[in-house]
Amino acid sequence: MTGNLHLGLDVGTTAIKAAVYDSRGVMKASKVCDSGLIADHPGWSSQSMDAIWQICALALASVVSQVGAENIGTVGVCGQGDGLWLLDEDGNPVRDAILWNDQRAVDYVTGWIEDGTADRLARYSRTAIWPGTSGAAFRWLKEHEPDSAARASHSINCKDWVNFNLTGELTTDITDATIPFMDLDTGDYAPAAFSMLGVEELREKMLDAVRAVELNGMVSEAASQKTGLAVGTPVAAGCIDVAAMISGMGLAETGDICLILGTTAVVAVIVEAEPFSGPQPGATLAHPYAEKWIKVLAPLSGASALDWFSSLDTMSYGSADAGESAQRLNAAASSAPAGANGVVFLPFLSGERAPIVAPHATASFLGITSATTQADLARAVMEGTAMSLRQCFEATGAAKPGQIFMTGGGARNALWCDIIASVMNTMIVASDSSDHGTWGAAMLGACAAGTMDVGRPPKRDEALRHHGPDPDLIASYDRLFRLYERYVASSGELWNARRDIMGDQP
């Protein structure tokens, strides 16, 4: 291949993004496509694997047509993590993929938490268990869809499925493989972890894990016809989307911290490999190219919390579109005082997995009075998400840094960045770019093909905004955070009561 451009594909839960870059990270072409969620039961979340590949192929074909296949030298793919993506012995999907935010396995996870299984499992992967992990979802599947479980020959991940369609080769990487069965001390799967969850047969379906910067294979003839990519274009093993974003931000040093405010939220801290010291919140991933780990706490609601609240506003205004609602609510939130006149929002719209694992958790507004306004509620949603991020960060035990890098769609919201800076009492360095995933994937693809130095990845130029904490708000937000913590801690009994009384009713 003689092409000097690098293609990155980010297969997200709500959007699939393709982009082409030069070696300095300058974008030359891009395409964003919506991906469709299937929610045919309250709390369930799935996607058609065939449809995901079709959408990926369309996105790839679009960017290839913009720059020419002959100019694309490498491909890298990242994607949403966790969930259950199963293939039969012929390489066909067994069923729709069960996603990371699915709640159908909630009762199993609740039992594992109560009987200590979750804590014992964390000995290996240093990761909490939640319903949307492959182990929990497969446990549900073998008892509720035994035929599907029996037909499964390979358990893979989202980006592995796309790579398989591109190259015909089945590969996974260590960032995706970590959760929930990897023994980080040995770098291999822990047989005991499968036994703990009652899914021993799943071990033989798992792929051996490689580094993200190793090759998956080359673009096949069939994939070339569908995407326009040249046959033989090298494709990297790739990684989970969070790790790709971290790569795209150039973060590889111990102590580097980033926040990702996308559909879900993420607090990620790069740490040294360390001996097991007891169960920990969140997840631990191997860094895609550095000999380090990434501690990841990813609450289930990020920018999706404001999207949800905006959708209520859209309905109330009839013909108003989502963009208009978001702008209107942002303006309203900016008019409300810090602290939202005493209203606190717990952003548990899909249960919670970090810093607490609470599958039955529900969202709520607390402190509402007859004087509460829509502006107060909008502000409370933004502040509640910021409080969740702070609680996750404090759970990592990391020292507060001088600055934290922030990316994702929510990072473009200046008001939200200001709130997060004051809630966390640190400088937020935000980027208006939301393509760190595609750039990170493209960079890993170039490294896998040997056209970029994995030890010294380029750091591209990009416009950054600095949001410092407001000195007048730090103390009041500290008090509000303590109240938020009390609300969360005292809500567990109510969530359990709701489960006992209401069962699975929405």
UniProtKB/TrEMBL annotation:
Q: Which InterPro entries match?
A: ATPase_NBD, Carb_kinase_FGGY, Carb_kinase_FGGY_CS, FGGY_C, FGGY_Carb_Kinase, FGGY_N
Please provide the record's keywords in A-Z order. Answer: Kinase, Transferase
Q: Is the Cell inner membrane keyword given for this protein? A: no
Its domain of life? Answer: Bacteria
UniProt KW S-adenosyl-L-methionine keyword: no
Where in this chain does the record put each Carbohydrate kinase FGGY C-terminal domain? Answer: 260-449
Give a GO molecular function annotation for the protein: kinase activity
Q: Which residues form the Carbohydrate kinase FGGY N-terminal domain?
A: 6-244
Kindly name one Pfam family recorded for this protein.
FGGY_C
**Family affiliation:** Belongs to the FGGY kinase family.
Q: What is this protein called?
A: Carbohydrate kinase
User: Which species is this UniProt entry from?
Assistant: Hoeflea poritis
**Source taxonomy:** Bacteria, Pseudomonadati, Pseudomonadota, Alphaproteobacteria, Hyphomicrobiales
